[in-house]
Amino acid sequence: MTDDAPQLPDQTLTLAGGARIPLLGFGTWQITGDDAVRATASALESGYRHLDTATIYGNEAEVGRALAESGVPRDEVFVTTKCPPDDAGRALDTLRTSLDLLQVDHVDLWLIHWPGSANTDMWRAFVEARDAGLTKEIGVSNFDASLLDEVTEATGVAPAINQIRWSPLLFDAGVVEEHRARGIALEGYSALRGGTLEHPAIVEIAERAGRTPAQVIVRWHLQHEIVVIPKSVNADRIRSNADVGGFSLSDEDMATLDALGSR
């Protein structure tokens, strides 16, 4: 690490099975090939200890290579991957393939990537994978409250986490409460998309704080205790997005950002 190393946050959440997930992770959607190796390596070098990938991203091998070559002990990195619902009926085989590509013997979190036609059956396979030690925690992505309840009631096992599209522009206190009432952690993706980086209110807060709009958005997630997984292929931006441990947003700034979701 150099003197300009980012000041990363150390916040984690304890999930249903006891695993601790860092609130800040590195997303890898749409990053493939050598870019995925380089970007993941930059993230690990910058201090990220949470990596997010998926079967359909087509980059598990590259993420696994970067992790294996990083020198960072496996047990210090929280690894998430996801299974497409089209693989219902062969989900365990999909996970074993993911483990081979990632060069690990288990993942820390395995998600159903989006709802399908056999959510309950697939969720039963996820419970089986957890019980077999292939994943520490199991969860879902892009599920609404009714689907969360459907799989929970069918199996007696609630998802540990639900990963959904999330940003200040999408903030909904009711969604946050729906998850917390069920003991399900909330994780946001695509936080830096959809006009968030250019929004005048976010830009104003960033300029006043001497921070980037991306740092403000990441910090906003952390102060809500919502997992966030910014992504970039640019090493400087990867470091900058993580450099959010040295400041906080005021209650007034948080309220301003929350209000963007109702406009």
Automatic annotation (TrEMBL):
Enumerate the UniProt keywords alphabetically: NADP, Oxidoreductase
One Pfam short name: Aldo_ket_red
- CDD domains given for it? AKR_AKR1-5-like (cd19071)
Question: Can you tell me which residues form the catalytic site?
Answer: Y57 (proton donor)
NADP-dependent oxidoreductase domain spans which residues? 24-260
User: What is the superkingdom listed in this entry's lineage?
Assistant: Bacteria
Instruction: Spell out the protein name for this chain.
Output: Aldo/keto reductase
